[in-house]
Write a structure and sequence with these properties.
single chain; 4 strands; 6 helices; four-stranded antiparallel beta sheet; alpha+beta; Nuclear Transport Factor 2, Chain: A; about 20% strand; about 50% helix; about 220 residues
Length: about 220
């Protein structure tokens, strides 16, 4: 049995209170070969608590002659997209898709805060993502129109891949179309924000414009 060491950077994503995703480059201390490894780690309690008992629910690796790590880059979600692409190129299907789900979650929570949609239950626990996404989309239309009738299906697809509903080969096949759909959501929000900024810069009364549009539609 050989000992592997991780590089200087180990990337961790929280997936609720009881799961985390870890990916890192591991290097054999004998032959210096590198391997890209991804772990889905779970606990039956709060995984951020003191000394939780954890288990590895899913694991994937891809041996390479050389495995490069990508650091943070400028721009919203750019780092997550880069990491998703790196995981995909390393043959880690589920490990790549988990970053796409994180982008989808993150942009939904950000827009929810922007438009005043509550993300917590009265007891402080998170509301179901499907409910938050539905309210956000009703107010801000963040899901591209072509699949806006069931935007939650994308989240379900991503989650299913992560939790083993698909093999690694199937996950790799689904990565590119899922990437395009997630980036479609990002583009939709970006366009909305640019329009809102342009209206603000021009000093237009958006409430008056909306009222005029509603009156025109009624006529």
């Amino acid at each position: 049995m050989r000992t592997f060491e991780s590089g200087e950077e180990l990337y961790c994503l929280g997936l609720g209170a009881e799961q985390i995703s870890l990916d890192a480059t591991l290097r054999c201390m004998v032959c210096k070969a590198s391997v890209e490894a991804w772990f889905l780690v779970s606990a039956d309690e709060d995984i951020s608590g003191r000394a939780p008992e954890v288990r590895v629910d899913r694991y994937a690796e891809n041996l390479r002659d050389r495995a490069d790590r990508i650091g943070a880059v400028d721009g919203p979600f750019a780092d997550l997209v880069k990491r998703a692409q790196l995981a995909y190129e390393s043959g880690l299907g589920a490990g790549a898709v988990i970053y796409l789900r994180k982008i989808f979650e993150k942009i939904t929570w950000e827009v929810a805060d922007l438009v005043g949609v509550g993300t917590k239950k009265p007891n402080g626990n998170p509301r179901p993502f499907s409910a938050v996404l539905k309210e956000v989309n009703e107010q801000r239309m963040i899901i591209p129109q072509r699949f806006s009738s069931d935007g939650y299906q994308l989240f379900s697809e991503l989650s299913g891949i992560i939790h083993g509903d698909s093999s690694e080969a199937e996950a790799l096949e689904k990565f590119k179309p899922c990437l395009q759909l997630v980036l479609g959501v990002v583009d939709e929000v970006s366009r909305d924000n640019k329009v809102a900024k342009a209206i603000e810069d021009l000093g237009w009364n958006i409430d008056l414009i909306n009222a005029m549009a509603t009156t025109g539609d009624a006529a």
